[in-house]
Amino acid sequence: MKMSYRSVCASAALVTVMLLSVVGAQSPEPKPAFQGQTDAPPPAKPSPPVTIQPVAGGLTGAWAFAFLPNGALLVTQNAGTMRVVRSDGVVSAPLTGLPPMKSTAAQGLHDVVLDPDFSRSRILYFTYFAPPKGEAPATWPIEHFYEQVWTKPFAERRTMNLGTERVARARLSEDNSKLEDVDVLAEGVERNIVLAPDGTMFVLGADRFRFYDSDLDGAIRINRDGSIPKDNPWLTRATVPRETYAHGFKDPEGAAIHPQTRELWAVDHGPQGGDEINIVRPGRDYGWPDVSYGKQYDARQSDGRKNVSVGNGATSMKGVEEPIYYWVPSIAPSGMMFYTGDLFPDWKGNLFVGAMSAEHGHHLVRLVLNGERVVAEEKLLAERKARIRFVRQAPDGSIYVIAGSEIWRLTPKS
Questions:
Q1: Residue 299 pLDDT exceeds 70
Q2: Separation of alpha carbons 130 and 22, rounded Å
Q3: Confidence (pLDDT) at 125
Q4: What band does 183 get if pLDDT is binned at 50, 70 and 90?
């Protein structure tokens, strides 16, 4: 049964770039499971104007960054480079010492997170896509990963050696010029890294449709040395990878720990519509590829059909967690942050998500929460018309975003 679902859904593994090129292709508005699950009203009090300070530019394919203790930023670029942006905006040459990487479609170098003890240990963690043995590092055209892969029968896809999603640990040299002692901690995930309060590490990955006829991939949980926590939820199931924490995600491109509940929240980039925010809990199923509030991509239907259902065609199913919020039409979400600083007092406790859809307006989403419910939604930076890929709170309470190939710093307007 899962095999048939996956065959129907394979085309939905298209990357963000292809999604954004489909003009006018969006699914009809589905019925929410509960009031407030979508289309939240604007906040009663709109946000005050902000000052936007350009920090750096020319960072093509910038995906994520981390704040270094000296005020610089360590920035990843999807094509496989990592650079340091100094506080004066000077961008370094690419760091050396990175492992071989393969960039194709949305695969490449993604997240980077500093260890809590970084100032002493210089340890950091990052996710990337590694080429298969014997293949040189390179950037491949999008057709390599999709047109030449997802169109093939499942059994044939299983024989292809395209590369491997990985999360690794390394040491940043004292002069910030190279990575040392790179150690692969786990394979099969390459999107977001979130360090949990209990000392473990969550790593989220996109749907690996080329390998599986089930959806038991998505979010893993490991210790920071790569070992397996003793309370992981699937340890008694020999057929499920022992690092598995939760499953049923399509393309989780942003995640963060809730500052009060300490639970993991994640945004899942849906197909044609159906972008979701989920609270990720151990052993739970989040639906993909069986159910979705979105539809398959119209552009990928060779027979010209429109609004083709995902999986079994339902938006809800017994045993599947409901998203706490979803978007139809798609906003193409990427990046997630809870604001906890003092610089923007009206934003404390709000959730922020980047939006990359050109069709429905590049912007930064501000979500006002009441417990686990979204009660208001506001679009910020929409007038700047820049794809917001990543968002992080700085140590001083300001907010930094990746906007296209630039990094901006947001502060209150004086």
A1: no
A2: 29
A3: 98
A4: very high
Q: Is 237 a member of any domain?
A: yes
pLDDT of residue 311: 83
User: Which tokens belong to 157?
Assistant: 């896809």
Looking at the domain assignment, is residue 308 inside a domain?
A: yes
**Based on the structure, what is the number of domains in the chain?**
1
Residue 83, domain member (yes or no) = yes
pTM: 0.91
pLDDT band for position 215 (50/70/90)?
low
Find tokens 């006002």 and name the residue: 368
CATH classification of the domain holding 239 = 2.120.10.30
Q: Does residue 398 fall inside a structural domain?
A: no
Residue 315 belongs to what domain range? 2-41+63-328
For the stretch 255-291, pLDDT in tens is: 999 999 999 999 999 888 899 999 999 999 999 988 9
Neighbours of 214 (CB within 10 A): 14
